[in-house]
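Board work, copied verbatim: Polypeptide N-acetylgalactosaminyltransferase
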Amino acid sequence: MKRNTKSLLKFFLLSAVTVLITVLIFRIFKSVNYVEQAHLVGLIHGAQPEESQHVNHIDNEKIDWHDLERIRRDALRKGLGEQGAPAYLSPTEMKNYDELYKVNGFNAALSDKIALDRAVPDIRHRGCKTKKYLKNLPSVSVIVPFHNEHWTTLLRTVVSVINRSPPQILKEIILVDDASTKPFSRKPLDDYLAANLTKSRVIHLPERSGLIRARLAGAREATSDVLIFLDSHTEANINWLPPLLEPIAQDYKTCVCPFIDVIQFETFQYRSQDEGARGAFDWEFFYKRLPLLAEDLKHPTEPFKSPIMAGGLFAISRKFFWELGGYDEGLDIWGGEQYELSFKIWQCGGQMVDAPCSRVGHIYRKFSPFPNPGKGDFVGRNYRRVAEVWMDEYAQYLYKRRPHYKQIDPGDLTEQKALRERLKCKPFKWFMEHIAFDLPLKYPPIEPGDFGTGEIRNLGAPEFCVDAMFKGKDQVVGIAECVSDTKKVGEQNFSLTWHKDIRPKGKSMCLDVSDPNDKADVVLFPCHGMKGNQYWKYDVEKQWFVHGGNMRCLDCDPGQKRLYVRACDMDSKTQKWRLENVNLTMISNWDNIGVA
Ligand code: UDP
Ligand code: MN
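↓ predict structure ↓
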């Protein structure tokens, strides 16, 4: 009996354990399935969820892609420009400095002395160094359009891509020679690549087509899953590819941009421009950048959404690129294509991110060395095409600032408009409200008026007003007797603009204080619209002009006729100023105007 009870107990215990294990296994299996399905939503090349059911969970495996051996060897390199250090030519090497500068807009003579495979500094966020990426990444075709690019900067682009890309991912590099006239651009280049850099080849365009059609020509020949476009004077940094590719592997409608570092045009020093920002534009279509969102700052190594790409450097799946019709072929030479593609990506169902762990250096030229190829205002025409097709009612804000765009013939737009219809792309208003939602705060489509205008009269010495008088050729700012009393001449009509700066009305010189000391002089300086030294807030109740930075108040010494800032003091009469016309509604909304 005792034995029986024991074995019965054993039996029950065993059964319980078996059931428990089965349930556990089942649950684990189920949760793996969930992970898979979440991941599969946008598997490589947009596989539909039905297809995805069969994909093994191994597809989620992540690995460390760093080429440790190369990193170790690079770290040991010494020499001119190595590790991205600023470099200089010796006096004997300056022979063709001027000549090469003129045709390139950067120090090409120096480039010739720096190794093609120089080491660049690893300036990625430290978290990038331990990050793993999907083991299964799509294949890559790199496309580099060039027009009269200098020999060594072009080759350094190719060499850096080959050296810093996993060979199994990098399938080809397609250079597109946009009818260059430099003698080495044809046969010598073909021969050099065939002998030394076999993954690369050149397409020679028969006539100057501009960078947009050159990129298209390259894209048409490309055979990989992902197209990566680069400028012809760039250097890929450590482990640049995996962070660009993973977001595309997860969702083929994601376009990914690397961080663009600065290769200084004079010294070839390699440095960051900053730690990331979201791309944008102002209403003259100058490329601008907006700060990262609080959410983005929490994950400094994760890709963040960006409304507009800088233009020259990005990765996009070949499938999505062609679904979007590539670029508008009607865009000529240079300019506006970054807006066209960014608008299309967002409005037509895709998204764009910047990947902080992918960095590529780019030579920002000192000046553009290329003459206009006899095509008139091609930039204006490109902008007009983009605005007409994609920007709906917002196009008017561009035309308001550049009325002559309305006179430019944009050419035939039927195909572009049909594409927008066919892809059922969203209105521009959607883009502005959901993607570039903070752009209008910094760059308002309709500029708000001024917070206040007119004379700025001191209350401690009421005969004195702020005056931007001329001393010889120089315009300076101080105080003088108010001209509305004396009827003398003076420059006393000021605007407290929506930029939150103070300028003589209609001028672009601003009241500026850079000195942190007591009684720091107020000077006139070209307006930069960046607040800081030029920020002034009018406190209607206290009648103070409070200066930004370390919070001081506009003050004056009537005896010495000096205008300066001092620590704000409730008892000071000379810190009180009456601004002639104040827009109280606007002032009460101070914090919501011109921020971002
Ligand atoms: N480019 C081109 N054809 C042109 C103009 C430019 O192929 O008509 C190439 C150029 O060589 C470079 C890229 O397009 O690789 C971008 O041009 P650029 O670097 O002059 O523009 P930026 O970077 O100065 O805006
Ligand atoms: Mn460039």
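Residues 40 and 52 are 6 Å apart (CA to CA).
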